[in-house]
DNA sequence: AGATGATTTCAAAAAGACTGAATAAACGGA
DNA sequence: TCCGTTTATTCAGTCTTTTTGAAATCATCT
């Protein structure tokens, strides 16, 4: 009564019977004698007060209950198998998973080489990717919802003990739609040129940290969009203007859907330093592996 | 080597230690002696070649691996527990789940009393609801994707051994939007009156059975919509005309958003018989319970 | 320092699982 | 129809694993 009558041995036994077709064959593969199986099965039948096999005929016929125990039980078996392995990995210093938070500035595409390599080298660690915008990305790190952040350095909050390593730069360019009035202006643009048009801005996904809003900040009319893909789309449709990461709009620029504009007041260098960031002190093997393979995140 | 070193006993042991704070207390609750726990833990530590507890201090400290085995292991424990129960229910003649297919003509609302009652009376059987339209609903039954169908009798296919029981009628009414030209016509409508306007029709979800299309069939311009809610919406917006189930448009009629129209040629009785249908021969306890509680599906 | 409580060690006991020979029942080919 | 073969069960005895209890170790508290 106190104990669960479904045992691992029972599931193994059912599994072997199913695989090999008869008690006798199953027993052989389990390195047991047929009567040992009978023993295991009958114990469960007694405890659970159900029939596992219909013994009226020559060969025992599966009951629905037994089939059900087998099919569900197999899942349990693999879960236990995996649990053993993941516990070993954990003891060896690996983590059970690893979460990379990508700023929306970056394309998912760019993390694929890292994911692929991780899957080859350390297949026992599932690597997940999350996306965030501006401070929101870093927030994931501080809240332990991510283990590695890839984002522009300037969005990094001062708080928290975060270590970073530069991994490249991203050029932000002012781009407008093909049919936008500014597209026709044939000279470096001034602040006054820009003033009349709404600015497309990324919404900061941060909930705790004071949100940042990057780009042409002091303007009035804003179109807040949730991520970079939407921002590119919005600007392509002429809904507003704003800075876009050059590497994500190559196609649009070549195709003429987006027109690059230069600014007269070149006060701001529009090269952003991209960094990988992590919590100071993280030192498991997964993390080390990641730091050693950061170059796979290369920004071209 | 051949056997998984993670055992149910191990998980139970870890669970008890976690619950009661010390090996000694845990042992007492497990009706064992402390050294028995030591034995279980050390066996796993030896097999898996990991440490479950850090014994350097006075009291043993959990390792990360042990915590992981416990938290994942608890899931496994409840899964095994459930498996035992569901096997017993199955042997007693209950099913592991039950799927009701509702024709889109009906509101999900109307099956709630049945679901509620099932949850009270036979909580061990999860009841699922699927929606389908016209022959598609019946198809789910024949393909064993549903165990009970609630749909208009006329849409029932001849093929297949299906038993039915009437559970009510639904009045289908011709309704047009408030600002539809027909709304202003102050007399029973003729076929010719209707001819100029597109008809909103439900798309049959059937993939195998020859699809039916209900309603004003012989007309040309059709707007095919996926379900009844969409159809009501479409007609409310004046996108077309068609018959709607009276009980689903009470609000709209009272509010004047939809106007009821009568037909001059009253050849077709627009009362539909609603039936519950099931595969002949189904005779498990779940099914019997359902048949005994069909009145909860009352159509008002 | 001594008492307390937690945990481990180890030999012996108990419980549980497995074996093997005997039995029964059903198939299948001659 | 008969006989050899295969399938599964029963049961008593054996072997393995788990559990026990007494003694030992060690850290903490008084």
TrEMBL record, chains A, B:
InterPro entries: LysR_HTH_N, LysR_subst-bd, WH-like_DNA-bd_sf, WH_DNA-bd_sf. Transmembrane segments: none annotated. Pfam families: HTH_1 (PF00126), LysR_substrate (PF03466). Signal peptide: none annotated. Residues 6-63 form the HTH lysR-type domain. Keywords: DNA-binding, Transcription, Transcription regulation. GO terms for molecular function: DNA-binding transcription factor activity; transcription cis-regulatory region binding. Belongs to the LysR transcriptional regulatory family. This is LysR family transcriptional regulator. It comes from Natronospirillum operosum.
């Amino acid at each position: 009564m106190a104990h669960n009558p479904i045992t691992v041995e029972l599931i193994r036994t059912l599994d072997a019977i199913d695989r090999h077709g008869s008690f006798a064959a199953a027993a052989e593969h389990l390195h047991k004698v047929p009567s040992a199986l009978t023993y295991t099965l009958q114990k469960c039948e007694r405890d659970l007060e159900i029939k596992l096999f219909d013994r009226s005929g020559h060969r025992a016929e599966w009951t629905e209950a037994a089939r059900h125990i087998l099919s569900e039980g197999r899942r349990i078996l693999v879960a236990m198998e995996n649990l053993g392995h993941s516990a070993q990995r954990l003891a060896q210093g690996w983590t059970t998973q690893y979460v990379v938070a990508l700023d929306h500035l970056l394309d998912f595409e760019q993390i694929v080489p890292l994911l692929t390599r991780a899957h080859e080298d350390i297949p026992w660690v599932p690597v997940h990717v999350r996306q965030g915008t501006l401070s929101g990305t870093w927030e994931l790190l501080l809240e332990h919802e991510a283990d590695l952040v890839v984002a522009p350095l300037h969005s990094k909050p001062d708080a928290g003990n975060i270590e970073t390593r530069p991994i490249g730069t991203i050029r932000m360019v002012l781009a407008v739609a093909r049919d936008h009035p500014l597209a026709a202006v044939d000279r470096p643009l001034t602040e006054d040129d820009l003033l009349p048009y709404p600015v497309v801005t990324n919404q900061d996904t941060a909930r705790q940290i004071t949100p940042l809003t990057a780009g042409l900040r002091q303007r009035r009319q804003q179109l807040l969009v949730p991520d970079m893909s939407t921002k590119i789309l919005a600007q392509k449709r002429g809904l507003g203007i704003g800075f876009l990461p050059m590497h994500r709009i190559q196609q649009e620029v070549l195709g003429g859907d987006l027109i690059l504009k230069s600014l007269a007041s070149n006060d701001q260098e529009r090269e952003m330093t991209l960094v990988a960031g992590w919590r100071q002190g993280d030192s498991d093997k997964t993390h080390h592996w990641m730091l050693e393979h950061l170059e796979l995140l290369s920004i071209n």
